[in-house]
What does this fold into?
Amino acid sequence: MEKETTIFGIRAVIEAIKSGENIDKIFLQKGLRGELFSELEQLLKKERLNSSYVPVEKLNRLSKKNHQGVIAQIAPITFYNIEELVTNVIESGKTPLFLLLDQLSDVRNFGAIVRTAECTGVSGIIIQKKGGAPVNGDAIKTSAGALFKMPICKVDHIKDAVFHMQASGIKVIAATEKTDNTIYDISFKEPCAIIMGSEGKGINPSVLRIADDKAKLPLLGDIESLNVSVACGVFLYEAIRQRF
It folds into this structure.
């Protein structure tokens, strides 16, 4: 299994970004100042990289080295280009089945979804550059190594992926309780992409508005929702059931 790489130090991280390293997330110390740090911040905005400001204690836990208030994590996988992936899947003759994850934040949920997606023949998973779970060693472990087999794409916003799917003739189905349709009312037989929302907020309203269809799971108990990885598994196996 490939190991996660950590880069620390302001200048080192700047050079890593400029050299095109496959950076998954950058942690910045709250309150840090200085000309070099300002240069890094401008670079992060330009490249739209996933970053967050954290207390120095978190940085100290991530690395015992002299991190200078900045730590970058290099993704242990290579991300796919969404345009190339969608084109290749369509040209392969297989009926596309994509997953769009709208800022799913829990790394274990993410890993579990990747594992289920690999088992159900999903064509690829699209995530946002910012706001989502890190693609790191924990995700790989939870996915049982499926992250090395499943194509993962990063986009600036999930809406970008929705529009691209629709332009490519792929129906976009949102998993949401804000509908009267259950998954048994929706057809998954044609090319489709399923959107799963974040653990706390669900699918962003702006994303929900542009979906082609919406579907929910019937819940018969007192609990109002399922864990997102479990719900995703139900959606995917309903798609498989309809296609077999």
User: Anything to note?
Assistant: Residues 161 and 167 are 10 Å apart (CA to CA).
